[in-house]
Design brief:
Largest sheet of chain B: none
Strand order of the largest sheet of chain A: 6-7-8-3-9-10
Shape of chain B: globular
Number of strands of chain A: 10
Mean pLDDT of chain B: 91
Radius of gyration of chain A: 19 Å
Strand content of chain B: under 5%
Shape of chain A: globular
Structural class of chain A: alpha/beta
Number of strands of chain B: 0
Distance between the termini of chain A: 22 Å
Largest sheet of chain A: 6 strands, mixed
Low-confidence stretches of chain A: 249-272
Helix content of chain A: 40-55%
Number of helices of chain A: 12
Order of helices and strands of chain B: HHHHHHHHH
Radius of gyration of chain B: 20 Å
Order of helices and strands of chain A: EEEHEEHEHHHEHEHEEHHHHH
Oligomer: heterodimer
Distance between the termini of chain B: 50 Å
Strand content of chain A: 15-25%
Largest interface: A-B, 29 and 23 residues
Number of helices of chain B: 9
Structural class of chain B: mainly alpha
Chain lengths: 272, 219
């Protein structure tokens, strides 16, 4: 579904600072319907990486193939059309304060020139899907963080995308809300068969949500594989230290402790 | 005495509102796109046009640094070209509009720059074209700030409109100068000042209420 080949991104030099190389040749394959996590510390390049997929950032070199097309070769005026195939969810929600929940979710369709009826047909079923039936005409200022992120997710889904890009979607939320949002995303992945790319700095998110994970450090992917395998036998120092942050018990080697640490919602992951 | 004064004051109030209203409308129509471009034409920004930024920025600043009374006199040939005369209330609209355009442009630029850049990014990720980002995201989100700014402009224009008596326009300021000051009629001066206070208060209250209504950030 998505293939990054040797993607590099260098930010040009600014006054007084050297050019900054954010991505040094990233190779990553993401199959349709898969949830792939990209984990790393701040500055590892993971946000740049996800923005190279929908070309919010233009890769300096390399190819980004989405659904068979190398999108880096698309002319600039075709980018809006391409981006409508990808939904994106943000850490700080990025909802329009001037629009109600309904109108926020409707925005991508409005931008695409959909009619009122088409918009209603797409948005109405999304409200119950994300559990916001009763908030339809509320403004973002009236919602909690978790509810705002549900709006963000519904908005990303409204244009019926094939891919959902999640950029630190739970980093501004408390643990309980995080769990609910991750459950929702997992559920959406199962129901709609959406491909998901999940950027995070928390191993708990990877564990709860992802099928595969790529660990980033200094603009390169240092380790990549099935989540279970990475958790069982982390090889790279960065992976080990990220695991140590989240699951101190894990290093002691007992799975029971991990489950305890992360409580109920992860039970579905334990089998995988 | 009051019965003879009332029609003059009413007439002058109407002239002031007419000058300010029309020039505010015209200046907004021209200043709004200018402000949008000032806010979005920088390098790497939405409607990237660095050359435009380099040329228009200094022009806006230059216009803003000329004292209004000098501007009003300096552009008399232009006023005559546009309206056909440089005297009268309609002629006063030209310098008022010219002075208000850069003022409004800067205010709108500021209000747009206040909008969280994450919203622009989100809109682009949704497939918004640059112009759609402006119309669907930046302007609606900046609306409370824009209304505040236009209210400020209206109040400033009421002040300026008192000066355009210099080019033969009417209005409350002109009435105050001619009757109150030059004819030594403190009663007229007092009525003019009170009327101006009332008008400014009313404009400010109306603007505040509109801005509050448009602002959904604190409900």
């Amino acid at each position: 579904m998505i293939r990054l080949s040797n993607v590099q991104k260098t930010y040009p030099a600014r006054r007084g600072s050297e050019p900054h190389k954010a991505l040094h040749g990233i190779n990553l394959d993401i199959a349709a319907g898969e949830i792939v996590g990209v984990i790393g510390r701040s500055g590892a390049g993971k946000s740049t990486l996800i923005r190279c997929i929908n070309l919010l950032e233009n890769p300096t070199s390399g190819a980004v193939v989405v659904d068979g097309t190398d999108v880096t070769t698309l002319p600039k005026r075709d980018l809006p059309l391409f981006r409508r195939q990808l939904g994106m969810v943000f850490q700080h929600f990025n909802l329009l304060s001037s629009r109600t929940v309904y109108d926020n979710i409707a925005l991508p369709l409005e931008l695409a020139g959909a009619s009122k009826a088409e918009i209603a047909a797409a948005v109405d079923p999304l409200l119950p899907l994300v559990g916001l039936d009763d908030k339809r005409d509320r403004y973002p200022a009236e919602l909690s963080g978790g509810q705002k992120q549900r709006v963000g997710i519904a908005r990303a889904l409204s244009s019926n995308p094939k891919v959902l890009l999640c950029d630190e979607v739970t980093s501004a939320l408390d643990p309980e809300t995080t769990r609910q949002i991750l459950t929702l995303l997992k559920d959406i992945n199962k129901r709609l068969g959406l491909t998901m790319v999940v950027i995070t700095h928390e191993m708990a998110v990877v564990k709860a949500l992802c099928d595969r994970v790529a660990v980033m450090d200094g603009g390169v992917i240092v380790e990549e594989g099935e989540v279970a395998g990475i958790f069982a036998a982390p090889k790279h120092a960065t992976t080990k230290s990220l695991l140590a942050d989240e699951f101190i018990e894990f290093r002691a080697g007992t799975d029971a402790n991990t489950a305890d640490h992360n409580t109920d919602d992860n039970s579905s992951r334990q089998e995988g | 005495m009051f019965s003879t004064l009332a029609p003059i004051v009413l007439q002058a109030t109407w002239e002031t509102l007419y000058m300010v209203g029309v020039s505010l409308f015209l200046a907004t129509a021209l200043g709004l796109p200018l402000g949008v471009l000032l806010a979005t034409s920088g390098r790497g920004e939405l409607l990237e046009a660095p050359l435009f930024q380099k040329i228009i920025g200094p022009i806006v600043n230059a216009t803003r640094s000329v004292p209004f009374i000098i501007l009003a006199v300096a552009i008399i040939p232009f006023t005559r070209f546009v309206v056909g005369t440089s005297i009268g209330t309609s002629a006063a609209i030209v310098p008022l509009t010219v002075a208000a355009i850069p003022f409004i442009a800067r205010i709108i630029e500021g209000a747009i720059r206040e909008v969280d850049s994450g919203l622009t990014e989100a809109a682009q990720a949704m497939g918004a074209r640059p112009l759609q980002v402006v119309t669907k995201v930046l302007l609606p989100e900046a609306l409370p700030g824009i209304i505040h700014g236009l209210t400020l402009t209206a109040v400033t224009l009421i002040g300026y409109s008192a000066m355009v008596g210099a080019v033969g326009a009417g209005g409350l300021g002109d009435l105050g100068i001619r009757y109150g000051y030059q004819r030594f009629r403190p009663d007229v001066m007092a009525v003019v000042v009170v009327t101006l206070i009332v008008v400014v208060q009313a404009v400010q209250m109306f603007g505040d209420r509109l801005a509050r209504k448009a602002d959904k950030r604190n409900i």
